[in-house]
């Protein structure tokens, strides 16, 4: 019998939206990031999507979804959003905005409503792995489901 996965706010949101997903538990490593989760699951890190909480110059939060093996160009993101600057939130601020612990942040079931931006190349993946709302817990799903449920704004900000 497979180990039970946590029922997080993200899982509740996915179930409420009738999203088909496959849960994956793995041993979480502090500072391991997407490289550690990809290695543990035996998948390409490009398909592991990180959920990042950023803020603009007015400290308004936003959620950006990026390939695990890429970084976000804060200048390009600010330019595409029409603001002066964007930057990652400090971990304690990100936790407050999202309702999740850094390392376990999911774009599903966020505590505070905020705009969600998606690196446009993620939509072309055959399948993706994204945090399920807890450290050491990813969910596998189709990009079409992520697009349907989150309705993110597509951006091109990968470096």
Order of helices and strands: HEHEEHEHEEEHE
The overall pLDDT, averaged over residues, is 95
Radius of gyration: 15 Å
CATH topology: YbaK protein
CATH superfamily: YbaK/aminoacyl-tRNA synthetase-associated domain
* Proportion in helices: 25-40%
Number of strands: 8
Report what the structure shows.
- By secondary structure, the chain is of the alpha/beta class.
- The chain has a single domain, classed as YbaK/aminoacyl-tRNA synthetase-associated domain (YbaK protein).
- Helices cover 26% and strands 26% of the residues.
- The chain contains five helices and eight strands.
- The chain has helices spanning 9-16, 33-41, 74-81, 91-98, 143-150; strands spanning 22-25, 48-56, 61-67, 86-88, 116-119, 128-134, 137-141, 153-155.
- Strands 1, 2, 3, 4, 5, 6, 7 and 8 form an eight-stranded mixed beta sheet that branches.
- Strand 2 and strand 3 (61-67) form a beta hairpin.
- The longest helix is centred in the N-terminal third of the chain and has 9 residues, at 33-41.
- The protein is globular and about 45 Å long.
- The termini are far apart.
- The mean pLDDT is 95.
């Amino acid at each position: 019998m497979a180990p039970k996965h946590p029922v997080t706010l993200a899982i509740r949101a996915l179930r409420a939206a009738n999203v088909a997903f496959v849960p994956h538990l793995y041993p979480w490593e502090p500072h391991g990031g997407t490289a550690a989760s990809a290695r543990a699951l035996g998948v390409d890190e490009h398909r592991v999507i990180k959920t990042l909480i950023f803020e603009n110059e007015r400290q308004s939060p936003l959620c950006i979804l990026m390939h695990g093996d890429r970084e976000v160009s804060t200048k390009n993101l600010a330019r595409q959003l029409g603001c002066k600057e964007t930057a990652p939130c400090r971990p304690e601020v990100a936790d407050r905005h999202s309702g999740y612990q850094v390392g376990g942040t999911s774009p599903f079931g966020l505590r505070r409503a905020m705009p969600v931006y998606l690196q446009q190349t993620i939509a072309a993946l055959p399948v993706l792995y994204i945090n399920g709302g807890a450290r050491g817990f990813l969910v596998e799903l189709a990009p079409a489901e992520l697009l349907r449920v989150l309705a993110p704004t597509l951006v091109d900000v990968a470096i």
